[in-house]
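Is guanine placement plausible here? Inputs below.
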Amino acid sequence: MIILDGFGVANERNKKLNQHILEHIQKGNRRPHLSIILIGENPASLSYVKGKGKACEVAGIDHKLHHLPDDVTFNEVLSLIQSLNKNPNVDGMILQLPIPKHLDENTLIDAISKDKDADGFHVINQGNLYQKKPTIQPATPKGIMTLLAHYNISISGLDAVIVGRSNIVGFPVARLLMDQGATITVCHRQTKDLASHTRKADLLVVASGKPHLVTKDMIKPGAIIIDVGVNRVDGKLVGDVDFEGAKEVASYITPVPRGVGPMTINALLENTYELYLKHI
Ligand code: GUN
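Reply from A.M.:
I modeled the complex. C-alpha cells:
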C-alpha cells in the first residue's frame, strides 16, 4: 500500500510555482494576486483560508483576506466582488464556501468575473469543463487529478465510484475521470445500497462530509482511495474513509490531513497563476 503524499507533492509544486513567479518578477512584472472573501466564523473555513494564505506565501502570490461579518448583506458582498473585478491588480478571487444561508451563493459566484474565477466555479467555466473546452478547473478535482498523475496512476478503463455529487467536487471529478477513460458511478444520499457500489470500485473518491462513512468492508482489495473529507471528531481531523482499516486493503490511499487538502490549495494557486499570465 502506498500513501499518496498530497502534502509533499503540493509543497514541491508550490515551490516550483514560486520559481516561475520569480522569473516574471525579474522581468519587471508585478506578483500575482489572489483575493479571498470569507464570510462569518466557520472554523473549518477559517482554517482553510489560513492554509491558502500560507501556501500563497510559499508560492510568492500576494493575497488579501476580505473577512466579512455573518450578517453582511447581499449588496455589500456584491459590491466587493464588483470592485475586485475592476481592480487590475487582482488576478483571482474566491468566495470561501459555505456562506450564510441568507446570501444567494450561485448569484454571487457568477458575479465573479470568469477571468478572475480562481475556483473554477463560475457557470461559464463549469460549462466549459462539461464541454471539454479549456477552462479554469475547480481546485479539488484538479488537485486529485494532479496527484493521480504524479503517481503515474492510469485512469483508463478503471471503474470509478464517487460518493458525493456536489458542484465543487463530486460532479466535476466525475467529468474529469470520465474524460480519462474511467467508467463512472456517482453515489449520493438517495443511493440505496452504497456498499454494493463502493465494493466494485477500482478507484473510490469519497466527498460525503460524513466521518468514516466508508469502512474496510466496503472496499475492493487493491482499490485506489481518494478521501476528500475533512471532519473534526473529538478534536482530531478525520476523513470520510476509515483510514486505519482501509489502508489494509487499498493499493493507494490519501491520508487526512495532508492528502487532498494541500493538493486543492496547490490547484487554486496554479489557477491564480494561469489567470495572472492572461492579465500581465
Ligand atoms: N469550501 C470547501 N472547498 C472549497 C473550495 O475549493 N473553494 C471554496 N471557495 N470554498 C470551499
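Short version: The mean pLDDT is 97.
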